[in-house]
């Protein structure tokens, strides 16, 4: 069972390309991009996002790969 931080809150699946949104939460890139195509709010809080820039979360990606043994 993967750690909760490794799971995308939108897909509820293990992330492979985690990105951090303006709300400080990490999401699977494709899932949050689909979300932001029609919404400007945080999937976690429902609050408006101050911007739609998605930053790659390299640290989390590395931790997931280490957990997977890749």
From TrEMBL:
One matching Pfam family: U-box
InterPro entries the record matches: Ubox_domain (IPR003613), WD-SAM-U-box (IPR052085), Znf_RING/FYVE/PHD (IPR013083)
Residue ranges occupied by any U-box domain in the UniProt entry: 1-70
GO molecular function: ubiquitin-protein transferase activity
Source domain of life: Eukaryota
Gene3D superfamilies recorded: Zinc/RING finger domain, C3HC4 (zinc finger)
GO BP term, example: protein ubiquitination
Official protein name in the record: U-box domain-containing protein
